[in-house]
Write a structure and sequence with these properties.
The complex is a heterodimer of chains A (111) and B (259). With 111 residues, chain A is an all-alpha fold. The radius of gyration of chain A is 29 Å and the shape is rod-shaped. By secondary structure, chain B is of the alpha+beta class. Helices cover 40% and strands 23% of the residues of chain B. In chain B, β2 and β3 form a beta hairpin. The radius of gyration of chain B is 23 Å and the shape is elongated. The chains are: A mainly alpha (111), B alpha+beta (259). Chain B: Its main location: other.
Chain lengths: 111, 259
């Protein structure tokens, strides 16, 4: 890399700077200009807060035994597969019941 | 469909070309859009991702946001090696080139003022961390089994006193460090401490500061930070940079109305 003036080698940059370093600069600092595409700055600020909360709280919440989202099919893929498994079991049961009826009918229909 | 214009920064015209293989947001190479004696650095981005609705939705997606933030920073970083860019906040998008020109036209004066103020300067980030307390640090030295309730309380008190002591030392250290570094910087900003979940750093962040330093004095600044690094047990100093002057790009005289 050639730099016009004497500048020490980058510290912690080029992928080494942590995500928080980058996000806090590109989202929270820099010149604020309303472009043609309007995204409220409030949204971005809320977003960083939300991100911090999301990242910070999932593990903590689990630690505290709060895991309701794990059983909500809209929020958890595991819950979705649990639900599928349940439905699957119910269908199997119904099929078994139908099959139990079937031999009799088969006997009756037999020539 | 020609796409929208994503603007990274405004600079003075610069002679050195950007790295040929540099890609920006969405993989599009950054292009220069001159207007009078200023240059906007822009990428063409698809409307499918950067129109109002999809952009709003994407911003909720940490992976997408991370990729865009890194691309944005990558372009700003490349600009910083050849000139002094005025970085814009992530997600500054216009319909077309003429929208970008109109924006520059409206803010020419303030852009020039800020660029003059920042010319030849870079930002260095300095963070101070307190390492986790002795009780959190693995593996704890096998404490002698308390013989009595009073023993137990005494042990607890000693441990918490050690932690309090470390905190006090860290606070003093951070205050002194900030004073020292401010002396060899032109300006400084103290940012909110970082959340370890997002930064992935160990220990608790007690100082998160940015310093505006002329390029020519950067070496000295870095040496100064380096010298403090192994002074205090349990306290860690981290240096990042050189960044574009993100933390100092805002107008000093605030309250400027847009349109």
């Amino acid at each position: 890399m050639t730099t016009p003036s004497r500048l020490p080698e980058p510290y912690g940059q080029g992928g080494g700077a942590n995500l928080a370093d980058i996000l806090e600069r590109v989202l929270d600092k820099g010149v604020v200009i309303a472009g043609d595409i309007r995204i409220n700055l409030l949204d971005i600020e809320l977003l960083t807060i939300k991100l911090r909360l999301v990242v910070a709280s999932v593990d903590k919440a689990k630690e505290m035994g709060i895991d309701w989202w794990e059983s909500d099919p809209a929020l958890s893929s595991r819950a979705r597969s649990d639900e599928l498994a349940k439905e699957n079991a119910e269908l199997r049961e119904r099929l078994a019941r139908l099959e139990a009826l079937e031999p009799r009918r088969a006997q009756e229909e037999a020539p | 469909m020609t796409g929208l214009r994503y603007v990274y920064a405004v600079c003075r015209p610069f002679g050195t070309p950007l790295q040929a293989q540099l890609t920006g947001v969405g993989g599009d190479p950054p292009r220069l859009l001159p207007h009078h004696d200023l240059v906007a650095v822009v990428s063409h981005v698809p409307e499918a991702d950067f129109a109002e609705e999809p952009l709003r939705a994407h911003l909720e997606d940490l992976d997408w946001l991370t990729a865009v933030a890194r691309a944005h920073q990558g372009v700003i970083d490349a600009l910083t090696t050849v000139t002094t860019p005025l970085p814009l906040r992530l997600g500054t998008v216009f319909r077309d080139d003429s929208g970008v020109r109109t924006m520059i036209e409206a803010r020419e004066e303030s852009f020039r003022r800020t660029l003059d103020r920042l010319e030849g300067r870079v930002e260095w980030g300095v963070k101070v961390y307190v390492e986790s307390g002795p009780e959190e640090r693995a593996p704890a030295p096998p404490a002698p089994r308390p013989a009595s309730g009073r023993d137990y309380l005494r042990q607890r008190r000693t441990a918490s006193r050690a932690q309090d002591d470390l905190w006090r030392r860290a606070e003093n250290f951070a205050t002194r460090l900030h004073e020292t570094l401010s002396e060899c910087a032109e300006d400084s900003r103290i940012h909110a401490p970082q959340n370890p979940a997002l930064s992935g750093a160990s220990g608790r962040n007690v100082l998160n500061a940015a310093y505006l330093v002329p390029r020519t004095q950067s070496e000295e600044f870095v040496e100064r930070v380096d010298r403090t690094k192994d002074g205090e047990p349990g306290i860690r100093v981290e240096l990042t940079g050189p960044w574009a002057a993100y933390s100092f790009a805002g107008e000093e005289t605030s309250g400027e109305e847009e349109r």
